[in-house]
Amino acid sequence: MPFNQRLYEVSLETLLTANVPKDIAEAASRVVASDDPNQPDLGRTPQDTAVAHEAVKHYWRGQADG
């Protein structure tokens, strides 16, 4: 599936607004924007999944803080 630029931008904005560190937000947004619903695990590698989990951890921590 091709890279979805709009999804990347929305994901990045959302994560940065939630105080996710920029490098993690950018990496996770690249993963999400590259997801392929026709592939097992959305076509994510174990590294992609780890980045997404790290972003979610920071996202929820940011939600709890404020």
Sum this structure up briefly.
The chain has three helices and no strands.
Structure description:
68% of the residues lie in helices and 0% in strands. It is built from 3 helices and no strands. The protein has one domain.
Tell me the helix content: 55-70%
Number of extended strands: 0
Question: Helix segment count?
Answer: 3
H-E order: HHH
Q: What is the oligomeric state here?
A: single chain
Structural class: mainly alpha
How far apart are the termini?
36 Å
Q: How many domains make up the coordinates?
A: 1
Largest β sheet strand count, sense and barrel closure: none
The radius of gyration is 12 Å
Shape: globular
User: Can you tell me the residue ranges where pLDDT is under 50 for at least 5 consecutive residues?
Assistant: none
Chain-wise SSE layout:
Blueprint: H1 5-17, H2 22-33, H3 46-65
Defining key terms:
66 residues; mainly alpha; 3 helices; 0% strand
